[in-house]
Design brief:
The strands form 2 sheets. A 6-stranded mixed β-sheet has the order 6-7-8-3-9-10, with helices on both faces. It has a 4-stranded antiparallel β-sheet with strand order 2-1-4-5, covered by helices on one side. The protein has 11 helices and 10 strands. It is globular. It has 2 domains: 137 residues, P-loop containing nucleotide triphosphate hydrolases (Rossmann fold, 3-Layer(aba) Sandwich), CATH 3.40.50; 70 residues, no CATH class. The structure holds adenosine-5'-triphosphate. The site of adenosine-5'-triphosphate has 12 residues, from β2 and α1. The site of adenosine-5'-triphosphate (ATP) has 12 residues, from β2 and α1. This is ABC transporter ATP-binding protein. InterPro entries: AAA+_ATPase, ABC_transporter-like_ATP-bd, ABC_transporter-like_CS, BCAA_Transport_ATP-bd_LivF, P-loop_NTPase. Belongs to the ABC transporter superfamily.
Length: 234
């Protein structure tokens, strides 16, 4: 479904991703794990068209999307749920969720989709009229996910959804990721929380210094010595 072929990208003169290749097949949950500053966010921003690819190519459902502007990438069915959620803090929860439905394909399905999304997040449903900033960190993360789902994406990309959340809420977030995948949306998730992510993912890539250094079935990587020492603290 999504393929990155020898992608190089970065900020200005600084190259962050070096010849990065990876693949996400339809229906999979794929994770990119790595430490601080490894290039996880940069990878998702590059796919989204927010950062220019300087060499290599990105294809989605067989189409070359390497140089498409970000809004056209969204139109193809790729949605990014950004790190730190980036909600409109003074707007209501419902208004924030509605903002997700701007993709053309999502507008016609708005009512049905809203109902489906709110079924997945009962706590959010009870707080639709509250200002987004009045919600707890975990609730705000759920709103960010709900907003992303309103775009009816084919591929949903999560940037560190567990960041800054209490352990119990982290488990709830990963539970939601599992349900989204089960309902047929393909998922690409980047995380520093390697342990939890490998439990929900089918396959994983390990990124260090902007390069993929390892990949395989998530289950297998959990047992790998390098992963256990470097990321699981075992
Ligand atoms: P984290 O988990 O800390 O967010 P990450 O793996 O997502 O890490 P990135 O955010 O992709 O890492 O950052 C990779 C590198 O790119 C880092 O060295 C970072 O300092 C650099 N970087 C990120 N954003 C910018 C920017 N806007 N301008 C210049 N360099 C940047």
């Amino acid at each position: 479904m999504l393929q990155l072929n020898n992608v190089t990208s970065g900020y200005g003169a600084t190259t962050i991703l070096h010849d990065l290749s990876l693949e996400v097949k339809e229906g999979e949950v794929v994770t990119i794990v790595g430490g601080n500053g490894a290039g996880k966010t940069t990878t998702l921003r590059t796919v989204s068209g927010l950062i220019e690819t300087t060499s290599g190519s990105i294809t989605f459902e067989g189409e070359d999307i390497t140089h498409l502007p970000a809004h056209q990438v969204v139109d193809r069915g790729i949605t990014l749920i950004p790190e730190a959620r980036q909600l409109f803090s003074e707007m209501s929860v419902l208004e924030n969720i509605q903002m997700g439905a701007y993709r053309t394909a999502a507008k016609s399905q708005y009512n049905q989709r809203l109902e489906e999304v709110l079924t997945l997040f009962p706590r959010v449903k009870e707080r639709l009229q509250q200002r987004a900033e009045s919600l707890s960190g975990g609730e705000q993360q759920m709103v960010a996910i709900a907003r992303g789902m309103m775009a009816c994406p084919k591929l949903l990309m999560f940037d560190e959804p567990s960041l800054g959340l209490a352990p119990i809420v982290v488990s709830q977030v990963f539970e939601v990721v599992k349900q989204i995948a089960k309902s047929g949306t393909t998922v690409l998730i980047v995380e520093q929380n390697v342990n939890q992510t490998l439990k929900v993912a089918d396959r994983a890539y390990v990124i260090e210094n902007g390069k993929i250094v390892m990949n395989g079935q998530a289950q297998e990587l959990m047992g790998d010595d390098h992963i256990r020492k470097a990321y699981l603290g075992i």
